[in-house]
């Protein structure tokens, strides 16, 4: 059961609609089932010209005269409550209980409050009812309606338990903002596949997943031809407190761009929440947002060198002195080791860089600048900085990658996703709530993977999974090794871009690991008793399975998870690879201890 709150100005116009035939003649037998007085006495009489709403309109609007100028700009409170199609048909008495529970929980009309607002509940169909109230109490007090939508949600869930209806999700603010009806119709008129709000949500989420700093986030948005407007503080000059985005060509009737703030796209895309991705509690740069992972277990030697070369080249392009260069390297999240002259101990003659490590005491793999590229040696950089002329333009990340580099990135991204899946499964039997950071980071990995591969099924999977990623009430989880591994996946795919041959084993292996990851997260959400998020993860996994890029690939494709006892699930939770129960052969003996083999004669997806 769901309820939607609307606001209006005129009571009589709403009454005429509720008692009318409807847009397609769907209104049948409209009548009042509950109200502030006896429903029989409140029912508008039928005259020669039809229903007479004057008395009912006068009763509902009479308290508004006591408020005068203190009235709300839209004083008519309208709540439409609908049951699911598979729910049993409720009687008038049951719908009356639903209406009274909603009015009680919202605080508009409690059972013991004789001075409460005046309201009625009109039923003109089997599966829904309309509640109409005027926001003025009989004692001259204006009622408070702040967060009334969340209270209506609580009332609907209480009625689901009372009448045995389909269970719906709580109002935990995990769902993204959906496009409004006008936005959807506008997209259809202009021939767009999705509304502007949905497209901007995808773009902003992808930019946030691949960015390490706030400036890089805005640069990525502008690189995608998205209009960006920053909001500055009125107290502190130059301080950015928010942002809004718009699509070129998406204008209103006055020809101005239609702006969407980050909070209008999703709860975790506001600027304060995005800053928590990039900064820790002491406002220092968070390690997970560095250019590489926390340790090198997910990266091959080729990937390490390419990532370091990209970061060092960007830092060199944005610097003019050795001091600026070293600061830029630290901002990139890299470890730096300097080499000094033997004759002059204060003179720097070279440098080496390495990715950060997660485990204390572990020696990182150092790469001198000259080993990364000839033009990145310190002597060559000093000559370029001292040369007169325009400042060099930063090199794009993807321009310097070879096909072999991109394939190595995809392999390492798949390895990081598999590692994250194994880490999540470790928490299934002990503490499913410890996997929250990984569930959140999986959305970034899935979104960037959809962008890199250009696959429409992965785009659908990312859209559907969006709700399963968020913690209730917009909380930002504490970073974990599994979440950092998935951020590594997103970062590597963002650097690599798309592989020309999208049917390579590397791409198929990545998608297969993402499917296994989504199945594992669905189990996590089920154990957390978050049904809506578990359903979103399962649906996202189903969309990802539709990626038929590897019909002839030797890579084993993950199957639908088989139903098995909970003890078996807990026992197998620590294994990082997909599994299947042992099946007996024709003689009754175990045929295999590994994953189930595909049935011969059927085409493998």
In a nutshell, what does this entry contain?
The protein has 605 residues and is an alpha+beta fold. It has helices at residues 11-18, 39-42, 54-61, 64-67, 92-105, 148-163, 181-189, 196-210, 214-223, 262-265, 271-278, 301-317, 322-331, 369-372, 378-386, 403-426, 436-453, 456-469, 481-496, 505-527, 531-545, 566-571, and strands at 2-8, 31-35, 46-47, 50-51, 76-82, 117-123, 128-137, 227-232, 240-246, 260-261, 335-340, 348-354, 367-368. The chain is elongated, with a radius of gyration of 30 Å.
Please name the defining characteristics of this protein.
single chain; about 600 residues; alpha+beta; BirA Bifunctional Protein, domain 2; 3-stranded antiparallel sheet; 13 strands; disordered C terminus
What does this protein look like?
The protein is of the alpha+beta class and 605 residues long. It has four domains: 162 residues, BirA Bifunctional Protein, domain 2 (2-Layer Sandwich); 98 residues, no CATH class; 104 residues, no CATH class; 171 residues, no CATH class. The chain has 22 helices and 13 strands. It is elongated and about 105 Å long. The C terminus is likely disordered.
Low-confidence stretches: 280-295, 392-399, 549-555, 560-605
- Total count of helical runs of at least 4 residues: 22
Structural class: alpha+beta
What is the topology, as strand order, of the major beta sheet?
1-5-7-6-2
Name the helicity range. Answer: 40-55%
For the largest beta-sheet, the strand count, sense and barrel status come to:
5 strands, antiparallel
Tally of distinct domains: 4
The backbone outline, from C-alpha atoms, is elongated
Radius of gyration: 30 Å
What gap, in angstroms, lies between the N and C termini? 37 Å
State mean pLDDT (0 to 100 scale).
Answer: 81
Q: Strand share of the residues?
A: 5-15%
**How many strand segments?**
13
């Amino acid at each position: 059961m769901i309820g939607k709150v609307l606001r209006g100005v005129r009571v009589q116009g709403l009454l005429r609609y509720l008692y009318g035939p409807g847009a397609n003649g769907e209104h049948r037998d409209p009548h009042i089932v509950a109200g502030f007085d006896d429903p029989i006495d409140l029912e508008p009489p039928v005259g020669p010209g039809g229903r007479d709403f004057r008395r009912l309109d006068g009763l509902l609007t009479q308290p508004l005269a006591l408020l005068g100028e203190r009235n709300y700009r839209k004083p008519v409170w309208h709540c439409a409550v609908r049951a699911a199609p598979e729910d049993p048909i409720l009687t008038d008495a049951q719908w009356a209980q639903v209406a009274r529970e909603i009015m009680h929980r919202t605080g508009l009309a409690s059972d013991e409050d004789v001075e409460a607002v005046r309201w009625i509940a009109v039923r003109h169909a089997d599966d829904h009812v309309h509640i109409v109230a005027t926001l003025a109490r009989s004692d001259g007090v204006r009622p408070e309606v702040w967060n009334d939508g969340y209270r209506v949600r609580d009332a609907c869930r209480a009625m689901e338990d009372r009448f045995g209806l389909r269970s719906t999700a709580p109002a935990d603010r995990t769902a993204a903002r959906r496009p409004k009806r006008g936005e959807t119709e506008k997209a259809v008129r202009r021939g767009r596949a999705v509304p502007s709000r949905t497209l901007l949500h995808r773009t902003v989420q992808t930019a946030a997943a691949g960015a390490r700093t706030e400036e890089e986030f805005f640069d990525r948005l502008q690189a995608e031809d998205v209009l960006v407007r920053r909001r500055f503080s009125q107290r502190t000059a130059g301080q950015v407190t928010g942002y809004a985005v718009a699509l070129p060509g998406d204008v209103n009737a006055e020809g101005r761009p239609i702006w969407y703030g980050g909070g209008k796209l999703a709860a975790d895309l506001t600027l304060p929440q995005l800053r928590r991705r990039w900064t820790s509690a002491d406002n220092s740069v968070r390690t997970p947002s560095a250019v590489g992972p926390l340790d090198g277990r997910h990266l091959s030697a080729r990937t390490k060198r390419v990532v370091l070369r990209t970061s060092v080249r960007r830092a060199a392009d944005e610097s003019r002195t050795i001091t600026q260069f070293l600061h830029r390297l630290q901002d990139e999240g890299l470890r730096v080791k300097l080499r000094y002259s033997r004759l002059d101990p204060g003179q720097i003659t070279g440098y080496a860089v390495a990715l950060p490590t997660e485990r204390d005491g572990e020696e990182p793999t150092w790469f001198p600048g000259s080993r990364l590229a000839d033009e990145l040696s310190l002597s060559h950089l000093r000559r370029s900085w001292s040369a007169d002329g325009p400042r060099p333009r930063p090199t794009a990340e993807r321009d310097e990658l070879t096909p072999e580099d991109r394939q190595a990135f995809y392999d390492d991204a798949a390895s990081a996703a598999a590692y994250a899946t194994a880490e999540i499964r470790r928490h299934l039997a002990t503490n499913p709530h410890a996997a929250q950071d990984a569930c959140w980071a999986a959305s970034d990995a899935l979104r960037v993977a959809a962008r890199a591969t250009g696959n429409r099924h992965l785009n659908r999977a990312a859209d559907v999974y969006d709700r399963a990623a968020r913690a209730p009430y917009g909380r930002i989880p504490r970073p974990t090794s599994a979440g950092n591994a998935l951020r590594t996946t997103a970062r590597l795919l963002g650097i690599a871009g798309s592989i020309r041959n999208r049917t390579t084993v590397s791409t198929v292996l990545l998608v297969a690991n993402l499917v296994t990851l989504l199945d594992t997260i669905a189990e996590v959400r089920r154990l957390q008793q978050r049904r809506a998020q578990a359903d979103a993860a399962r649906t996202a996994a189903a969309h990802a399975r539709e990626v038929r890029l590897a019909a002839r690939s030797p890579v084993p494709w993950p199957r639908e998870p088989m139903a098995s006892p909970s003890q078996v699930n807990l026992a197998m939770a620590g294994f990082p690879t997909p599994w299947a129960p042992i099946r007996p052969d024709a003689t009754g003996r175990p045929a295999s201890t590994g994953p189930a083999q595909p049935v011969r004669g059927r085409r493998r997806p």
